[in-house]
Amino acid sequence: MQPIQPEARRAVSRSVQPLNVLELPDALLRLETLALAAGMSVATLYRKAATGELPLVKIGKRCTRVRSADARAFIAAQGDAQ
Question: Residue 80 pLDDT > 90, yes or no?
Fold first, then answer.
């Protein structure tokens, strides 16, 4: 069995969520979307979740989301803290 050549590998394309998804009441946001909206890195968001500042929704082993209402409250709390 020969190894797969780098050029033969497919790149996984991820669709980008628009930022106006934050306005939808029951939307589940990707952490990358919240990171863009909040001006933080995804790693920082995971640290905030570990301290209890940001509730996460685990959908699967490798799928984590944030409810839009929780995202809006988190961004508002970050603005109040400054």
Answer: no
Q: Count the Cβ atoms, other than its own, within 10 Å of residue 29.
A: 23
Long-range contacts formed by 47-56: CB under 8 A, 24+ apart: 48/74, 53/77
Q: pLDDT tens for residues 23-79? A: 888 899 999 999 999 999 999 999 999 999 999 999 999 999 999 999 999 999 988
Return the domain boundaries, the chain. 26-81
pLDDT at 6 over 60: no
CB within 8 A of 34, min separation 6: which ones?
A: 45, 66, 71, 74
DSSP 32-43: HHHHHHHT--HH
State the Cα–Cα distance between residues 31 and 36, nearest whole angstrom. 9
